[in-house]
Amino acid sequence: MNLTPVNNKVNSAVGQPRETVDGVTRRALLAMGIVGFGFSGLIDVLVLHHVLQWHHLLSGIYPMNTLDGLRTNIRADGLFSIAMLTIMCIGGGLLWQSERRTDVPLAVRPLIGAAVIGLGVFDLYDAIVDHAILGLHQPLSQGGYYNPHWIVVSLLIIVAGVYIYRTGTRTAVEKMGEGG
Fold it and tell me: Do the beta carbons of residue 10 and residue 19 sit within 8 Å?
């Protein structure tokens, strides 16, 4: 990964250099990683918790087969959804700030790569921390072979994000070399 600054114009409002990494600011990459992390959490809770009902956020602690346990789990899922939406909004705000602070148009493909990396990071965190370490919940009837496979899938998602990022940065650098 080439982290050589491509553009070192000075941001007069802040007095900071407007560094870009292969056509994308570091802040924009972080922002899209945060958006991807939040998006993955939101998809997890909506699809796996509510639509498929494989588990709920706290189903490893509160049983899903009692009314009180189900209420507690659904409430926790709702709060988790709000937290993931908040994380996505923070990432969106950082992306907006990043775009406004540079004269260089942001390259889209590296940003998509950063978002995909964020997706994989959430899934990896969920499998290792929430499932294995804290035991908050286990998909598919509280256990089984899901977690090792999901860790591998999460790592593959991260690798795919890195690939998208790297191919996008090469394209951005080539376009800058052509003058457009």
Answer: no
Range of the domain at 168: 23-174
Rounded Cα gap, residues 91 and 65, in angstroms? 36
Q: Is 73 among the domain residues?
A: yes
Structural domains of the chain, count: 1
DSSP H helices in 21-66: 26-43
Of 17, 13, 31, 6, the closest CA to residue 114 belongs to 31
CA distances from 180 to 1, 157, 177 (A): 22, 31, 8
| pLDDT for 173 beyond 60 | no
Q: Is the pLDDT of residue 84 over 80?
A: yes
Question: What value does the mean pLDDT take over residues 139-150?
Answer: 68
